[in-house]
Design goal:
The structure is a homodimer.
Chain A: H1 3-11, H2 18-27, H3 36-44, H4 52-64, E1 69-71, E2 79-81, E3 87-92, E4 98-102, E5 118-129, H5 131-139
Parallel strand pairs in A: 3-5
Antiparallel strand pairs in A: 1-2, 3-4
Helix pairs in contact in A: 2-3, 3-4
The structure holds a DNA duplex (25 and 25 nucleotides).
Chain lengths: ~140, ~140
DNA sequence: ATTAATGCAAACACTTTGCAATGGA
DNA sequence: TCCATTGCAAAGTGTTTGCATTAAT
């Protein structure tokens, strides 16, 4: 991790421990939408004593600071996304991989809600089959 | 429950017990997106011995037959929707209520995925504040 | 020196499962 | 009668919390 980044985190009151730096390094540019366990497995290589609880509390702290997103795309477990820019997801229902897509335009509310419901954010999820899984399924 | 409906369920191999009929009656036209516990609480009034396990297995069976949708809108618990027609959801982040909205039109995929990813379904979720919660917040 | 993070274990919430008893078809 | 459903309790997941120890600032 570059020192400018360290500076930034210390400035927002986020204490940088070696474990946290390892987590942040793992997350940097990671587009795989890892679960807590994914993160744990990756970081535990460097820190055999690392615990899942630390991953959870660290990710919770990062989310509070607005540095990661907690995705609920996967109903079974949380997934984290270091890309906090507005974007949406495409999910392959076969291999479960999640791909990023740019944010969609505005969503039209039905008349009954227009001007009544104040929209803060909208989220689009597309489900289908990725190229690899289409190929595999075709062979069957 | 009307007998035509009973006929339909028996025909698809769904054995109708009194508990199941009570669940189906509770679900009929229900737009509140109830959780398993909501359903349990409602039906337990008639059946004091009713168990949550029965609700879960029944809902699982109904989902398999395509008679309810399992929503993952709420990251903490499953919610069920007897409205299996294509539609989307508006969620109030304050009171957590979920409102139905008609399905949106097609979603544009980025060029990199067009013709590569085969879209099966898309889902839109809008988050914001409902009228009541806007009013309450304004008073504070 | 302060104060917060670590990491273990225990607690938690939601959901699923094993199984004997029950009751639809 | 036959086989699925019930409902209890126990097990299973993923996540959170209490707390003494450790370490960052």
């Amino acid at each position: 991790m570059v020192s400018a980044l360290k500076y930034k985190y210390r400035n927002i009151g986020f204490k940088l421990t070696p474990q946290r730096i390892a987590i942040l390094d793992y997350l940097e540019g990671n587009t795989g939408h890892p679960s807590a366990e994914d993160i744990y497995n990756a970081v535990a290589k460097k820190f055999p004593t690392m615990s899942l609880a630390t991953v959870y509390t660290t990710m919770g702290a990062l989310r509070e600071k607005g540095n990661v997103l907690e995705l609920k795309v996967d109903p079974d477990k949380k997934r984290y996304d270091p890309n906090t820019a507005k974007h949406n997801h495409v999910i392959c229902i076969s291999c479960k991989r999640i791909f990023d897509i740019p944010a969609a335009g505005s969503i039209d509310l039905p008349d009954s809600l227009t001007g009544v419901f104040s929209v803060l954010e909208s989220y689009v999820e597309v489900r289908g089959l990725c190229l690899e899984c289409q190929t595999v399924n075709a062979k069957k």
